[in-house]
Amino acid sequence: MGDNEEAKPLTTVWILGAGFSKPLGGPLLADMLSPESQQDLRIRYPDNPHLKSRAESCVRRIYAYGHKSPSRHHADKAKARLWEHAEEFLDYLDAAAKNANSPAAKRIAVLASMVRATGEPPNDPGVEELQTAARRLVAAECCAFLDGADPETEKWQPYREWSRSLNDGTNAVITFNYDTVLEHLNSGVVVLGDDDYREARKSKQAPIFKMHGSVAWRRTADGAFEHADANDFALTCADSELAIATPGPGKASLCEELRETWERAIQALKTADAIVFLGYRFPPTDASARSMLLEALRENKRPHVDVHIVLGPNVNTADPMRLEHLAKCALEMAGRWELGPEPEPGDADGTFKVRKHPLWAEDFFTVLPALHTGV
Question: In this model, does residue 264 exceed pLDDT 60?
Fold first, then answer.
């Protein structure tokens, strides 16, 4: 393949979040660490020592305690919670682990003592051990829903059709998910370095950029990443080999180690004619990603950019409206103007169009051929 062919723009970039995997059983980050997930993991992996350790039990008890209202006398019970959902808890726990002398670390230590089960010894797991256990639980939940999954079943059909459409040399996938749905679908080439990227472009397969790591990667002793032998590698690997960027200060460190992946993904956005946000909403713990993706939108040099937002049937809720406004602001800051419902001939230079689709991911895949023909 010549340099000119490799330089051709990837004209459609798909940005995937947890909502992409949810119809297949994938967990939303905010819903993790629930009692239901604990039961499911113990049934699926009864002999896994990582998932039945004292630290694992302590993490779940601390999360449950802080998620409920610790002060029965508080007028607003929601405000009495230490964390509203698992995403906030993971962020808090990671921050505590980064500084053992911080108020957050001291509070976690107090909570570990408070939720100690009857008969347990007083030497509670340390905050770093708890943070590692929490990351392992997140990884396990991202593996569990694919345990025994059959991509040939009916619920996977829209995903299979979408996956087949990717490999024409014009698509790229940016995913913030840790799971291996894309690998199960054989959707393209997961990029970890130059060889993977060259393979994707040469074979016209979609390059897949995993921005926050993967349960199928190994983190090496020198801070590099490599493809593991199994899609559920995170279930059995050493703690130091976990390669997922969970919420908290540690996420920035891992993303910095994935700088090459981020740079390639951002470059793809800058040359895209169409960008599809599919189940990705710019969660509060993704401030850095939000800044970089919106900057790439501003710096896009294509004559016209289409942005599609697919976050479910109700397009007037906070998440799709917020994402729509962020995208429009970024494009308008670049001097673009939005096309009206009936664009005039010759309106394709320096323009954009943002569309919110009242659909789930699987619905969007079903109507995708109509969108390509302008219907």
Answer: yes
CA gap 374, 118 in Å, rounded: 64
pLDDT tens-digit readout, 317-328? 999 999 999 999
Element (H, E) at 207: strand 206-210
pLDDT of residue 312: 96
Q: Which of 53, 124, 131 is CA-nearest to residue 97? A: 131
C-alpha distances in angstroms, 25 versus 19, 129, 296?
10, 28, 31
Query: Distance between CA atoms of 30 and 283, rounded to whole angstroms?
Result: 10
Overall pTM > 0.85:
yes
pLDDT in tens, 155-164: 999 999 999 9
Burial of 268 (0-12, 13-18, 19+ CB in 10 A): buried
Tell me the backbone φ, ψ of residue 44, rounded to 5 degrees. Answer: -70, -40
Catalogue all structural domains in the chain, each as residue range(s) with its CATH number.
3-26+151-211+258-372 (3.40.50), 29-144 (no CATH)
Give CA–CA dist 89/76, Å, rounded: 19
